[in-house]
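User: Just a sanity check before I run the rest of the batch. Below are the structure tokens for the first item. I only need the designed sequence back.
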């Protein structure tokens, strides 16, 4: 294997064999490439399989693309997220966990919200509490209940223990009811996917040993994002048999503390439990000199800028108000595109090479308004996985499809009946008088669907929608969404030797079938959390006033939460490959209608 263009540090990591290693890799240090080259080398030189875990489907796809699709790689390397790895195990072992059929993933937050509301309504005690709350407090109550449920699962403690340490002791009973409702719908949520496999490994030694014997090496990318459940899953997988574990991560990019993630799992627990050797990789091959120097000042780092020939740009620009800030950004975007070419940027400068980042989605309001007025193409980068349908016909199809492959799914059956305004979606007489008569045809098409003939059914739906839907805009939207569904089916069949309807639905829920060729076009608007793992040639970082970024809640709490906000700023900086423009309003319009004077973010003061 050629190691041309690898630095001495990178070559050293690629050449590592047995043992446990923690690679502390700064942003832009080429860690994905190093990890990929090591996996490729191990696949050619050692026995046993290699497990490579990432935290996003995009990162997993990037590693798979770099590894190539040889028979050796396909047979000996599993690359995926914690969720996709655990899902592959559940599909084989679900009966050992008490399920008669493979449980289906309720991936949408609205589904979890509906279940918690059902749990509340099922017990008079909770119903009385809930009904006496005003609308805003009801939302808080259900949100906090769902947070409680997630925390129980990811922190591996009982509902009773967590309830005793908090204010809402009744949440422990909601937890039990919520889990019962999931089970009655033959369903699981995202936290369950990992927790069930952890329980399988810890309670069934023979099953755990099958996987311990199969995998000789484990590699985990972005391990600063590990939470307790994920780390304990790793330990339960390895047991006393798998000693060859490499973690790669950057504690300065730990920004998911609100989800239970902590860099201490890699820096402290992993080092102690696996006797791991620490290695630093603090070169930067991605960003321009100006961006790296600003990032170093921000985080008090000494990351070396390898490519000094690319100077790039870093600027901090104040504006009087949010509207003025938005004008500043739009003018900057237009100036960049009108420039067309710059020595620091490869190829023509287009809207696709520009991103606008912010701490929260609300800061984009004025920028989005001006983008529309100026007819500049843009899109919001979504962190959601799965497919969200907007057209009425595809919503009906999706709900029928879910019920078709999971007859116990009463939650989505009820949603379908509510849309159609009928009491029984399986009663043809009722459907004839439903709000959407087209549902009769959709039902017939879905009922006769198998994985083998699903493409034929998609074609039948295209014909149906073309003939029946009268409104041109609605027709186009519906057909576009159906084409997206069809493309995901193609991706799924490419990835699986034994495809099934159940497997296809799970793959959609986990985001494993998103077609990377369907790229959004235009300026990307994204929160920093959603943009993590991706970069742009030119980045405008907006809303950098104190109380917005860092968020006022983190300012009030201080400590670890404020540090995570600083890490978040570092992640935002290092999304810029060449030019980084940072802006903030000196006056911000508050919700009650008055302007309030703002100061520059405390994180930026050393850079002024």
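Assistant: Here's the designed sequence for the first item:
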């Amino acid at each position: 294997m050629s190691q041309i263009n690898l630095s001495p540090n990178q070559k050293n990591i690629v050449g590592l064999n047995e043992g446990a290693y923690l690679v502390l890799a700064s942003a832009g240090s080429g860690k994905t490439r190093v990890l990929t080259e090591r996996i490729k080398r191990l696949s050619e030189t050692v026995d046993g399989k290699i497990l490579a875990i990432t935290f996003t489907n995009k990162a997993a796809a990037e590693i798979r693309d770099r590894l190539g699709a040889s028979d050796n790689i396909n047979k000996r390397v599993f690359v995926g997220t914690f969720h996709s790895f655990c899902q592959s195990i559940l599909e084989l072992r679900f009966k050992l966990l008490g399920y008669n059929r493979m449980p289906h993933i309720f991936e949408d937050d609205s589904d979890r919200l509906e279940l918690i509301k059902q749990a509340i309504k099922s017990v008079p005690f909770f119903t009385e509490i809930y009904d006496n709350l005003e609308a805003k407090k009801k939302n808080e109550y259900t949100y906090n209940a769902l947070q409680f449920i997630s925390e129980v699962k990811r922190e591996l403690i009982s509902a009773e223990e967590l309830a005793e340490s908090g204010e809402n002791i009744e949440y422990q009973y909601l937890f039990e009811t919520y889990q019962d409702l999931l089970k009655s719908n033959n369903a699981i949520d995202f936290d369950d996917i990992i927790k069930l496999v952890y329980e399988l490994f810890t309670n069934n030694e023979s099953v755990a040993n099958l996987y311990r014997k199969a995998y000789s090496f484990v590699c985990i990318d972005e391990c600063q994002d590990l939470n307790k459940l994920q780390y304990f899953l790793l330990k339960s997988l390895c047991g006393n048999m798998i000693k060859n574990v490499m973690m790669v991560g950057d504690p300065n990019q730990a920004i998911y503390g609100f989800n239970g993630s902590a860099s201490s799992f890699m820096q402290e627990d992993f080092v102690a439990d696996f006797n791991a050797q620490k290695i630093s990789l603090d070169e930067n091959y991605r960003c321009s000199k100006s961006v790296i120097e600003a990032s170093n000042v921000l985080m008090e780092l000494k990351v070396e800028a390898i490519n000094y020939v690319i100077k790039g740009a870093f600027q901090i620009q104040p504006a009087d108000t949010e509207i003025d800030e938005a004008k500043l950004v739009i003018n900057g975007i237009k100036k960049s595109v009108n420039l067309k070419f710059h020595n620091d940027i490869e190829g023509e400068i287009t809207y696709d090479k520009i991103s606008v980042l912010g701490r929260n989605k609300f800061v984009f309001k004025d920028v989005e308004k001006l983008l529309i007025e100026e007819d500049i193409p843009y899109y919001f980068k979504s962190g959601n996985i799965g497919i969200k349908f907007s057209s009425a016909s595809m919503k009906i199809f999706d709900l029928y499809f879910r019920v078709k492959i999971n007859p116990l799914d009463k939650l989505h059956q009820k949603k379908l009946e509510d849309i159609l305004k009928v009491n029984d979606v399986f009663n043809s007489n009722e459907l004839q008088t439903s709000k959407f008569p087209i549902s009769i045809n959709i039902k017939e098409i879905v009922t006769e669907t198998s994985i083998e003939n699903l493409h034929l059914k998609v074609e039948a739906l295209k014909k149906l929608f073309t003939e029946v839907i009268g409104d041109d805009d609605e027709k186009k939207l519906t057909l576009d969404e159906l084409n997206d569904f069809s493309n995901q089916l193609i991706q799924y069949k490419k990835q699986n030797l034994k495809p099934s309807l159940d497997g296809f639905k799970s793959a959609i829920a986990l985001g494993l079938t998103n077609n990377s060729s369907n790229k959004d076009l235009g300026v990307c608007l994204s929160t920093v959390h959603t943009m993590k793992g991706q970069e742009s040639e030119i980045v405008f970082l907006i809303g950098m006033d104190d109380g917005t970024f860092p968020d006022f809640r983190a300012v009030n709490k201080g400590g670890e939460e404020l540090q995570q906000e600083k890490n978040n700023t570092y992640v935002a900086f290092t999304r810029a490959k060449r030019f980084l423009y940072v802006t903030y309003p000196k006056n911000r319009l508050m919700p009650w209608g008055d302007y309030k004077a703002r100061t520059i973010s405390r994180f930026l003061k050393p850079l002024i």
